[in-house]
Amino acid sequence: MHKVLPVTIILAGIVVLLLVACGAGGGSDPAARAVESYLNALVSKDLNRLSTLSCAEWATDALAELDSLQAVSVRLEDLSCQTSDTDGSTTLVSCQGKLLATYDGEDQELDISGRTYQVVQQAGEYLMCGYR
Asked: What is the distance in angstroms between the CA of the first residue and the CA of the last residue of the chain?
């Protein structure tokens, strides 16, 4: 029984480290993390999370994007985002990776790198607010 406690503590520590590492997508770049979170919410079709990750001006468009994905199975592949520039109070974020949509057994691939995502900071939160 005495050997079980140290092993349990070590395993718990490893689990905590893995959870922290997985939750830290985008590194220390909060604008990049905001876009990654938005895209993950879109793919998981999480309406509530998508709404909290969008600025007020983008909320209707975010819902339209979500609606367009309702009839397909969607997944992200090799997602990686980073801040590329700023434009006034807007942070511009570039991403790499693919959005794969499957409908009736056929995959359609959308290259994420074709868009520059716009992120604004409101009430201390970085929020997705459109793309170019």
From this structure: 60
Structure tokens at 120: 């604004």
Beta bridge partners of 101: 74, 108
Bridge partners of 122? 125
Task: State the Cα–Cα distance between residues 82 and 94, nearest whole angstrom.
Answer: 6
- The architecture in CATH of the region 31-131 reads Roll (3.10)
Q: What DSSP string describes 50-108?
A: HHHTB-GGGHHHHHHHHHHTTTSEEEEEEEEEEEEEEETTEEEEEEEEEEEEEETTEEE
pLDDT tens, position by position, 45-102: 999 999 999 999 999 999 999 999 999 999 999 999 999 999 999 999 999 999 999 9
Q: Amino acid letter at 15?
A: V
Distance CA(112)–CA(43), nearest Å, equals: 13
Residue 72, both tokens: 């397909």
